[in-house]
Amino acid sequence: MKKPIKFSFALICGKITIKLLKLLKRNATNLPGSVVLAICPDFLKYLEKPEKIIAITGTNGKTTVSNMILDILTDNGYDCTNNNFGGNVDTGITTALLKDSTLSGKAKKKYCVLEVDERSALRIYPYIKPDILVCTNLTRDSYKRNAHVEYIFNILNKYIPDSSHLVLNCDDIISSRLKLQNKRTYFGIAKIPGERLIPDNIIKDINICPICNAHLKYDFIRYNHIGRATCSKCDFKFPKADFDVIERTFTDDGKAHITVANEGNEYKYLIPCENTINVYNATATITALRTFGLTYEQIEASFKKISIVKSRFEIIEVNNKKIISLLAKGQNPVACSHACNIVRDNPSEKNVIMLFDDMFDAKYATENTAWIYDVDFEFLNCDSVKRIIIGGERAGDYTLRLLIAGIPQEKIFCCEHEEDVAELIDANCETTYVVFDIYNEHLRRITENNLKEKFKNAC
Ligand SMILES: [Zn+2]
């Protein structure tokens, strides 16, 4: 393919930007890609790609799955281009590929693992054709940006290449129906005896049969619309899992023993997962890597060496008091409802500090608080939750929502300055949850440190 001069110029400018950022000791996440795409918008068309590409998309879990896939491939000697430094839109993906390309635009590495934002599909897949594409799940998320889940489904369905082998969640009636003509391998989790299911979420993103519009009947609902459904009228039913988790036991140190049924055999893994959501992520990882060609033994051995990054879930103990930090992803009602469910499942008496960052929305346009009415804040209406402390300019909105959830007003505390939330906790509680958003990691750290100081000084 003849490459235009602007491509070579963009490539050199991108490389210089990466060098400059390195000199300034700053991470090259999106900026080099932005520079390149400003000069040559179809840059990715001309850049040589690695030979084998695994892409990961979906509403929840894509970062965790990408990290696990990358860690396991690296552990098995595969050197992969990747964007696990953070940029999952076109600019970040361009930066990742640019970093590992030569000055003539050739790929330095043979393998590639890319996390891809769902809405970026139209800017990525015309140029990058993943050999394996994992979709973890699709649920409503960031309404102003993503509209409804069907809008995102349609984007993916239109732009995912016909050649990609899909790895899909059979327990998600929505994403399991992506690109029905493509090759596909399904993963899922069968109903586990004694499992605590969550059939009482407020939202379900699909209620009717995608074939005949009759009501769906669920064999079981694990959470939101994730579960195993059949149609009440036609013969539509959830797809059969090729990799099906049939046993799952959690250990006390945040891990899980799982048994995965595949082609009549059973395979046991010890995985670094403390909840069912992460068991889905690990099963997606196993399915993608087995499809890629890794053996059970290779994956099983590597899983023993990896851990879930502490930025998402962390327990700190000071003077017999527990601080549990939990990533909840603001504007994402499914992720937030999970956090509320984890809090209610812990029987100890607790404070819940909520640090959500909605302000990036409000900076540019009208505010959108619709999503907080889809979060199951009702789960926090239980005796063991002693106080809920909310910080920031949206505290009033959250207070109204918590009151609608039936939470007594005397349990709700508002704090104008988010840095000061730790001062409002009930110090008698054994546990304090810090539920934070992906965009306010700094506030989470400040709050954790303030809590640590408070508990240290208490003795
Ligand atoms: Zn039907």
Q: Can you characterise this structure?
A:
- The protein has 459 residues and is of the alpha/beta class.
- It folds into two domains: 47-303, UDP-N-acetylmuramoyl-L-alanine:D-glutamate ligase; 313-457, Protein-Tyrosine Phosphatase, Chain A (Alpha-Beta Complex), CATH 3.90.190.
- Helix content is 32%, strand content 22%.
- The protein is built from 14 helices and 17 strands.
- The strands form three sheets. The chain has a nine-stranded mixed sheet, sandwiched between helices. Strands 12-13-17-14-15-16 form a six-stranded mixed sheet, sandwiched between helices.
- α12 (359-364) links the parallel β14 (350-355) and β15.
- α1 packs antiparallel against α2 (31-39), α2 packs across α5 (90-99) and α4 (62-75) packs across α9.
- It is globular, with a radius of gyration of 23 Å.
- The model has no long low-confidence stretch (mean pLDDT 93).
- Zinc ion is lined by residues 209, 211-212, 214, 231, 233-234, 236.
Number of domains: 2
Strand proportion, as a percent range, falls in: 15-25%
User: What proportion of the residues is helical, as a percent range?
Assistant: 25-40%
> Which molecules are bound besides the chains?
zinc ion
- As for the CATH topology of the largest domain, it is UDP-N-acetylmuramoyl-L-alanine:D-glutamate ligase
Instruction: Categorize the overall geometry.
Output: globular
CATH homology superfamily of the largest domain: Mur-like, catalytic domain
Strand order of the largest sheet: 2-3-1-4-5-6-9-10-11
- CATH class category name of the largest domain: Alpha Beta
CATH architecture descriptor of the largest domain = 3-Layer(aba) Sandwich
Distinct helical segment count: 14
N-end to C-end Cα span = 71 Å
Given the helix and strand composition, which structural class is it? alpha/beta
Radius of gyration: 23 Å
Oligomer: single chain
* Major sheet details: 9 strands, mixed
Name the average pLDDT: 93
Number of strands: 17
